[in-house]
Amino acid sequence: MSHSNLDSSPANIPPAKETHHKRQENPFLRYLYLLIALGGLTYAGLGFVSLSEATQNERWPTVEGQIVTNEVQEYERKRSDGSTFKTYKAVAGYRYEINGKFYLGANLSLHPAERTLKGVALTELEPYQIGTKIKVYYNPNDPDQAVLRSSDTVGAYQAISAGLCIGLVCLALFFISFRRPQK
């Protein structure tokens, strides 16, 4: 059986149809990426500011104090739709003495957080049982300002990491959106 009438040389193969999908440029999307990137980087910047505030009391002098009260305070908050929810804050009252003068404090940290779970607030109080001797960090310029934790950096690190991730990814998407499709 002869296949002389079938020529499969490259010259006889019809060219494939070129199907270039032209990517539509959307300037709104570009600037949305840029806007979100700037917001994320701003959030990271605020995290750095918060970090410096959260660690400022690490340089404060310390004095021995004693826990005199501990409780979980309950707050009722309103949502934008009018419904309510409860938050809880761990509060440990303590006394301390500086240069013969007694002071009372109640702040665990410079920026105490309200919790949505009462159990989390109770866990925060475990090291602060009534009668326990504790280290008190106090502001040398204002001894009434005192805290029990040398730093509270979790929120600051969360803001920095989330802000950088969002900001850098959206900034990369912004620059990628300017690339032309290759032919």
Descriptive overview:
The structure is a single chain. This protein is of the alpha+beta class. The chain folds into 2 domains: 60 residues; 89 residues, OB fold (Dihydrolipoamide Acetyltransferase, E2P) (Beta Barrel), CATH 2.40.50. 32% of the residues lie in helices and 27% in strands. The protein is built from 3 helices and 5 strands; from the N terminus they run H-E-E-E-H-E-E-H. It has a 5-stranded antiparallel β-sheet with strand order 3-2-1-4-5. Strand 4 and strand 5 form a beta hairpin. Helix 1 packs antiparallel against helix 3. The chain is elongated, with a radius of gyration of 31 Å. The two termini are 44 Å apart.
Break the fold down into its secondary structure elements and pairings:
Elements: H1 27-54, E1 62-78, E2 84-98, E3 101-105, H2 118-125, E4 133-139, E5 142-147, H3 154-176
Domain DUF3592: 63-151
InterPro entries: DUF3592 (IPR021994)
Keywords: Membrane, Transmembrane, Transmembrane helix
